[in-house]
Design brief:
about 300 residues, Rossmann fold, 11 strands, about 35% helix, binds (2R)-2,3-dihydroxypropanoic acid
Length: about 300
Amino acid sequence: MARIFVTRALPGPALSRLEDAHETTVWQHQLPPSYEQLRAHAAQADALLTLLTDRVDAQLLAAAPRLRVIANYAVGYDNIDVGAASARGIAVGNTPDALTDATADLTFALLMASARRITEAAAFAREGRWQTWEPAGFLGADVHGATLGIIGLGRIGQAVARRAAGFGMEVLTTETRDQHNLEHLLRRSDFISIHLPLTAGTRGLIGTQALSLMKPTAILVNTARGAIVDRDALARALHTGQLAGAALDVTDPEPLPPDDPLWSAPNLLVVPHIGSATWSARERMTEMAVDNILAGLAGTPLPYQVPA
Ligand code: DGY
């Protein structure tokens, strides 16, 4: 029997497959284990099932001599030092595809909510301030016929593009960090949506310079990783009216500190990293992570292995 440490209780029945086959410890608290707590559990473990909130770096791996497999409960794996894991022969898996449509749906929900001022208008109605139909009340931006710039044309970017087609939007895309293409997209788009992994090359990609190219009427949507956007630069752009709005599922750090200047920015919508938060996506993610762990412990290739 191998020892498995799972860093949080997960939706769906699939974790029982680990519990039936191996000695499995599930962290039952609402907040994640601290780095030190994770390191202490990893030191005894043959397998780890981690979340994006768990930092698995070279130091932690060095303190985990038995570790053979890490299954990350996310498609993104920027929380794991994959290079250090590969060097040790530790297989690393993720959960691609399971959350593509859920995240694309949320991207559109954020885009629509921001364009049509849904949260503001709903609060206005609920607070009893709705007195009459107002000709100029809550005017927003058209989504149909607008231009959507999609930065990153992987699975989720493509799923967003399919939704945009249904709204009659013109879609501009940039697949790579092609500077010329990116600048064109930033200048032309009414909505800009980020769908890139967080890497050394994408960290801070949307900073002062990129924001300065966007239309003052543009709305930025980020459902990828918070650190792709420079949050101070974004706060400045919103406060000065250089950018019309931003809708963020992800921030850096998460959660955003209560005194962060972004909170007081106009036309900012933040939700707590819920892109994949549908029952079916999260249950499927559990199944995939469990499949990865069982394969890794059996010494077979992971069904959803991240590139080394
Ligand atoms: C991911 O999978 O990377 C999302 O951010 C969380 O589901």
